[in-house]
Amino acid sequence: MSTVSSGRFSHLLRWIGISLVVLLGLQLLVLLASWNWGLEPFRQLVVDRLVSESPMALLGLILMLFGAKLDQPTGGRSPIHWVVGVLSILLAITMVVAVPVSIGSEQATAQQVAQADAALAMQTMQLEREKQQLADPKAVDQVIAQAEKAGQIPPGVPDAQKKAQARQFIDTQLKPQLEKQEQQLGQAKLGRDLAVQQRRFGGTGRAAVLAIAFGVLALVALL
Questions:
Q1: Distance between terminal CA atoms of the chain?
Q2: Per the count of CB atoms within 10 A, which of 77, 85, 100, 130 is most buried?
Q3: Vertex 84 angle, CA 17 and 78, to 5°
Q4: How far apart are CA 34 and CA 57, in angstroms?
Q5: Which domain holds residue 197?
Q6: d(Cα 99, Cα 90) in Å, to the nearest integer?
Q7: H or E element: which one contains 180?
C-alpha cells in the first residue's frame, strides 16, 4: 500500500471512529436533557442505554487508534492516542459505576418478578381447577343446566341431544379458551424469565466486560 493510500485509509478510519463515538454522545445528550437520577426507572434507562450503545463507541475508539497507528507505524503518541486513552478511561469508569447500578436494578426487577410470580401462581391454580372441572363427567350436566336456565335449549329436547350439544360446546368453546389462557400464561412466564436474565447478563455482565475492554484499550493507547 502506497503512502498516499495509507494516509487516506487512516483518515477514513479515524473519521468513522469519531462518528461512532459522537453517536454515543448524542444518545447520552437525549438523557442529559431530562436528567433525573433519583428515579429508579431513569437509572435503569441510563444503564441500558450505556451498555447497549458503548460497544459502538468501543469499535469507534479502536478504529481511531488503528488509524493513528497507520500514520505513525514507528511508535510515538499522537493527539489521537491521548483522545482514545482519555475517552477509554472515562468510559471504563462509567461502566464500573454502571455495574452496581445494574445490580440494584436487577434486585428491583427481582421484586417485580416475585410479585408477578404470585399472580401467575394464582392464575395457574385457577386454570388447573377449570381444566379439572371440564374433565369431570358432571361438567356436561352443568353445561346443560346452565343452557336450560339461559333458555338456550328449548323444552322437549331429548337427553342424548342435550348431552351431544353440551359436549360440542365444551370441545369448541370452553377447551379452546382454556388452551388460549394456558398459552398466555406460558408467554407471561417466559417474559418474566427473560426479564431477569436480560437484566443479569445483558446489563450487569455486559457492563463488567465493557469496563475491562475499555481499560485494556486505554492501556494500549497510552502505554
A1: 27
A2: 85
A3: 100
A4: 22
A5: 3-222
A6: 15
A7: helix 175-197
